[in-house]
Amino acid sequence: MCGFAGFLDPERREPASDYGKIAAAMAATLVHRGPVSSGIWLDPEAGIAFGHQRLAIIDLSPEGHQPMVSACGRYVLSYNGEIYNHGWIRDELEAEHGLGACAWRGTSDTEVMLEAIRRWGVDRALETFNGMFAFALWDRHERTLTLVRDRFGEKPLYFGWNGSRFLFASELKAMRAHPAWRGEIDRGALDLFLRLSYVPAPGSIYRGIFKLLPGHKATVQADRTAPGAIPEQRPFWSAKARARAASCQPFDGSPQEAAQRLEALLRDAVGIRMEADVPLGAFLSGGIDSSTVVAMMQIQSNRPVQTFTIGFHEPRYDEAPFAKKVAAHLGTHHTELYVSEADAMAAVPRLPTVYDEPFADVSQIPTLLLAELTRRYVTVSLSGDGGDELFCGYGRYTAAARQWRITRRLPSGLRGLLRKCARVMPAAQINSMFGSFGHMLSRHRHRSRPGDKLLRALDLRGAATREELFRQHVSRWRPAELLVPGATPYPTGFDDASRRPVLDDDLLQFMLLDAITYLPDDILVKMDRATMAHSLEARAPILDHRVAEFAWSLPSDLKQREGKGKWLLRQVLYKYVPADLVDRPKAGFEPPVASWLRGGLREWAEEMLSESRLRQQGLINPAPVRRLWSEHVKEQRNWQFALWHVLMFQAWLDKQSCG
């Protein structure tokens, strides 16, 4: 696992003598991603420079050093990730070209990638790679720079022009280290962030800087690409296309056969992710996903797997006791750490640096603490990420499907009227109207602000498409709220027809929407930044593309049955863990931020959300923020999520102004 950065200077604006210094400075900001060694590769005549930070996982010797030049001398690769089937690819190359033709220098997957690209070309090589990866490839003959990101977006990659220089990096902080850097906040991206808790791809918080989409590649030709011309992102693997193809040829075996097939795929996906030349373990929450991964690890290990859990002293947020029972049953070597409220809140000032771009999933805090704990013992940890999005783990899928069944029956004219009403009717007055006869309502209904609920229901009924309904369902702010003056949000996976899935089954449609938006831009960002901040590599076996494509071929009744999601995944797990140890309502991984904002974090939040501060910045409309803050501190409503979005942007903005 590593971090890399670099620049292409087609007009040769930088003095040749500065290339190494700039590349090293950019890479140095990523030392947390790769503290073992650093390296640079330069060709000032061609205008290209790479900087790299290495966290050695496979082949700890200098033969795995990066940036790496191919044996033929044509290609230069700077790469972040792991190719889990590199041994198989090595065997294939030797079988095709002869052992003598492949004079291996070491045992790293980086060298195998370069040889595969040399022999097969980039496209065929990408088809064979099973792993998580982001890389920059320089072709010295064609003078082209190719950027590539793995199928689900487990590893990050940013790129864009800054003046006449084309910059690329694993994290934005490396791009900001270039002396030519000039960053302007994209108001459209900010508006999307405040609603969704993440900045969705392909945009970034900076205008003109982009995220490479999962499963895509982009190429810049040094001598033919005009500065400022954004390279087209082309898919080498598409979740939309693969899911559509799988749904058109659904699995037609029995539930028992489906469970056997899934178990075989998971066992292999976990097995190839257990290869490492450093200590390895797993995160364990005691839920379905992580318990399944650990079970698959333990049956393939000749000693107890090391497992790790974070616990809270507040019982309703604490999953540690469940994880402990699962660990005991599977026979793992289990470590748990209980964190106090003070410990958790102490992590808040670190968040803008760790996540680098505004990010507001509140489970970022326990994830960061869990990564810190785990790194004390191992260098690689497997996770259960992807299980919810592939096997129907979130209640919002069924809720949105139920809402769409009602909405789709309404005439378009009526939907438009309902939406207009929802966006012009004042929630406060409706709440006040209900409050006038609040004595007739239960205490719960009186305090639950029926006006807000009514307007939300009307707005959902006004959705023109199911994708629009789902986006509103996951947003923390009403669509009508003017959050960022002058914002023009860009198309995302919810409304970009080239990325948006079209499946007949509403439940599967919503799951796939999450798989191309929330999963790469929230869940995987959270895991990557938290683990890499502590030089820990996280691997997600459930996101093996073979598992995903099989999951997409399954009818929805094999994913949700008898009111329970992940039905088929549970059948696999029940072979190894009794149902009564893992069957419980989904708790999530969220700290009690609501009470923190009224308690230990109140003074900090009040300063960050002050009207004068917001007005002076001129980025966020103070009115809706101040309304929610007032209601929250008075305990009239719980607005922890919407407020946390604003707070995380404010904390990030502060960090940028402080350097």
Which secondary-structure class do the elements indicate?
A: alpha+beta
- Spans of at least 5 consecutive residues whose pLDDT stays below 50 are 442-447
> How far apart are the first and last residues' alpha carbons, in Å?
26 Å
Cα shape: globular
Radius of gyration: 25 Å
The fraction of residues assigned to DSSP E strands is 5-15%
Please characterize this protein's 3D structure.
This protein is α+β, with helices and mostly antiparallel strands. It is built from 30 helices and 17 strands. The strands form three sheets. A six-stranded antiparallel β-sheet has the order 2-3-1-9-8-10. Strands 4-5-6-7-11-12 form a six-stranded antiparallel β-sheet, covered by helices on one side. Strands 15-14-13-16-17 form a five-stranded parallel β-sheet, sandwiched between helices. Strand 4 (68-69) and strand 5 form a beta hairpin. The longest helix has 18 residues, at 255-272.
Q: What is the gist of this entry?
A:
By secondary structure, the chain is of the alpha+beta class. The protein is built from 30 helices and 17 strands.
